[in-house]
Amino acid sequence: MIKGGYMGKILRVNLTNGSIDIENINDSWARKYIGGRGYGTRIIMEEVDPKIDPLSEDNKVVIATGPLCSTMAPSSGRVMVITKGALNGAIACSNSGGHFGPELKRAGFDAVIIEGKAPNPVYLWINKNGIELRSAEHLWGKYTNETDEIMKKETHPEARTMEIGPAGEKLSLIANVMFDGHRAAGRTGVGAVVGSKNLKGIVVRGYLGVKVADKDAFLKACYKTRDILSKDAFSGGGGAKYGTAMLVNVINGVGGLPTRNAHDAYFPEAEKISGEMLTKKNLVRNEGCDSCPIACGRVTEIRDGKYKGEHGTGPEYESIWAFGAMCGVSDLNAIVMANYLCDRYGLDTISAGSTVACAMDLYESGYIPKEDVPFELKFGSPDALVESIRLMGEQNTEFGRLLAQGSYRLAEYYGHPEFSMSVKKQEFPAYDPRAIKGIGLEYATSNRGACHVRGYTVAAEVLGNVDRLKYEGKAELAKTFQDLTAALDSTGICLFTTFGLIGKNIAELYSAATGFECDETEFMRIGERIWNMERLFNIKAGFTKKDDTLPPRMLKEPIQTGPSKGEVEQLDKMLSDYYKVRGWDENGIPTKEKLKELEIEDLA
After folding, report:
1. Whether residues 422 and 450 fall in one domain
2. Are residues 443 and 461 in the same domain?
3. Can you tell me the distance from the alpha carbon of 360 to that of 366, in angstroms, rounded to the nearest whole number?
4. Tens-place pLDDT, residues 425-464
5. What per-residue confidence (pLDDT) applies to 316?
6. Which residues of 384-417 are buried (b: 16+ CB within 10 A; e: fewer)?
7. Structural domain total, the chain
8. Residue 336 CA to chain centroid, in angstroms?
9. What is the C-alpha R_g of the chain?
10. Is residue 227 part of a domain?
11. CATH classification of the domain holding 294
12. pLDDT tens-digit series, residues 287-335
C-alpha cells in the first residue's frame, strides 16, 4: 500500500466528448514502475496500439510526475510527457523542469491522461474549484510566451502552464511542449501530438502538500544528497555560474563537438559561443527549477547588434551547439535569437538546429536548388540560421514546411537521407560518437531515437575516468546509464543530480518518500524493467535491429581535425555485446527469460 510520495489520483480528459474523470492510481504499477516515465509508459502500453498513426485521434498523451516531485528532494521539479512520438513513431517521453509538475501534484494529481480530439481549440483549467475545458480559439496561432501570459490572466496569476506554439498547431514533427512559456519538453515531436488534439494548453493551480512515508528518514536523505551536490564541480558551482553551456569548451576540447553537420568534430571558434562568453555577453541572471540547488537555467538578453533588446531564457548547451558549431555559426547573438524563436514557436532546438545544418550541407553540396531557398543557405551564416528558423516556425513556404518535418524527411525529399545526422529519424545531440564511443552506442539503442539523456555515458567518458576511445566495457556502461536514467526519470528528479549522486542515494530518497523498500539493486532493476517495456513498444510499432544504427558519416568518415582526428565509430564492436548484456537475442528482442525475470512477460 502506498504510504507517501503520491497524491493517489489521475485525471483523465476525453477531448472528443468533453468528459473529465478522476481515477485512483494503480498501487501495483506505482511499485513496479515508480511514476513519471515508467508509470506513464505503462499507461501507453495498456491503452495505445503501437501501430497507430501518432497524429491520429487514437493516440494519447500522458503528463506524469513522480513520487519525489514537489518534495524537498533536490531538483525535484521534473514532469514527463509520454505518448507515441510524432517524429518517428517510437515511444516518446520528453522531460521538462520548471514548476508545472510540482503544481500539478499540489492540485492533487500524479498524472493527466489526454485522449481523443477536441472539435475546436481548447485549454484545460485545473484548480481547487473544479476542472474545466475552455475555448482556446483566441489563443490559436499565438507564441508560447503569449499563450502563457494570456492563460494566466484568464485563470490565476500564480498558476503554472503547459502550452504549444504555432509549430505544434501546424503539426511540425519537431514541435515541443513548453511550460510557463520558457521550459521545454523538447524532443520526439510531442508538441505535434498535443496539437493534433486541438489542445492549446493546460493551466494548473494547486493548494495541497505532498506527504512522505518516513519524514525523519526523508529529511535525512534530503540533507545528505544536497550536501553531496554542493561539493560537486557542476552541481555545486559550475552549473550555476556558466550553466550547461560550460560544456562547449569541454567537449570541443576533446574533439567531440559535431561541426558543420558533423563533417568535423572540432570547432575552432568554440570560445566565441561558450558558456563563459554567454555569461559575459548575455546573462541577466541564473534561475532554478522547483526545489533545485543547482540553478543552471539562464535568463538572458541581447544587448547589441541587429537583435538588440530581445530577451528570453537560454540557450542551453545543446541549443548553442545546434545553432552554433553544427551550423558553423560563431555569432552568439544569432544563436541566442534562434533559441528565442524556437521557444516562441514551440520547436525542439536540437532537431531545429540540426535540420538547418542538414539543409546547409545539402545546399552547399548542390542538392537543394537555389530557387527553393530565398537566401544563401551556407554554413557559418548567422542570417541564414535565423531566417531558416523563422521559415520553420511559420511554415508559410514549401521549404519552411519541409524544414519543420526534421532533417531526415528534408534530406530524404532531396534524395540524400544520409545527410541527416539522426537515429530512428531523431537528430542526435552535441556529442560526436566518433570521439566518444559509448555515447554512439547509446544513440543507436535509445528507445526514443538518438538521445543523450537516456544514458549519459559522457559523464564517465569525458567528465569521469573511462577512456572515451576504447570499446571495451561500453555495452555494460550504456546499459547501466540507461537503466539508471529510466528509474531516475520516473521519480521526478533531475538527471543533473547524477553528477554527484548514485543509485543508492536516489533509492534512499525514494524509499523514505513512498514507504516502498527499495535498495540500489532494486532501483536499477526497475529502470531495466522500464527500458525493456519501452523496447517492447517499439518492437510492436515495427522497429527492428536495423534501426539500432548510426548515420553513415559516423561509421565511415573520419573526424577531420582536432584531438580526435581520424576517428570513426565502430558500432559493430559494441552492439552484439550490448544485446547480450541486456539479455536479448541476437536480433535485439528481449528473451522470454528476461521478461519473466523483470515480471513483464504479460507485455510481450
Report:
1. no
2. yes
3. 10
4. 999 999 999 999 999 999 999 999 999 999 999 999 999 9
5. 94
6. bbbbbbebbbebeeebbebbbbbbbbbbbebebb
7. 3
8. 19
9. 22
10. no
11. 1.10.569.10
12. 888 888 788 888 999 999 999 999 999 899 999 999 999 999 999 999 9
Closest by alpha carbon to 313, among 142, 449, 490, 184?
184
Can you give the length of the chain in residues? Answer: 604
Task: Report H helices in 434-495.
Answer: 437-445, 458-461, 474-491
What does the block give as the cell for 210?
505532498
Verify that 62 and 190 share a domain, yes or no.
yes
Query: Among 466, 460, 467, 351, which residue's Cα sits nearest to residue 411?
Result: 351
pLDDT tens-digit series, residues 382-426: 999 999 999 999 999 999 999 999 999 999 999 999 999 999 999
For residue 31, the domain's CATH number is 3.60.9.10
| Residue 467: CATH number of its domain | 1.10.599.10
> DSSP per residue over 219-266, as a string?
HHHHHHHHHHHHTSTIIIIIHHHH-GGGHHHHHHHTT---BTTTTBS-
Return the C-alpha cell found at 271: 570560445
Whether residue 369 is found in the same domain as residue 444: no
| Cell triple for 253 | 576540447
**Domain containing 331: what range?**
247-426
Burial 141-157 (b: 16+ CB within 10 A, else e): ebbbbebbebbbeebee
Residue ending a domain, among 170, 204, 238, is: 204
What's at 94, amino acid-wise?
S
Contact 103, 160 (CB under 8 A): yes
> What is the bridge-based pairing of β-strands 297-301 and 79-84?
unpaired
C-beta neighbour count of 174 within 10 angstroms: 32
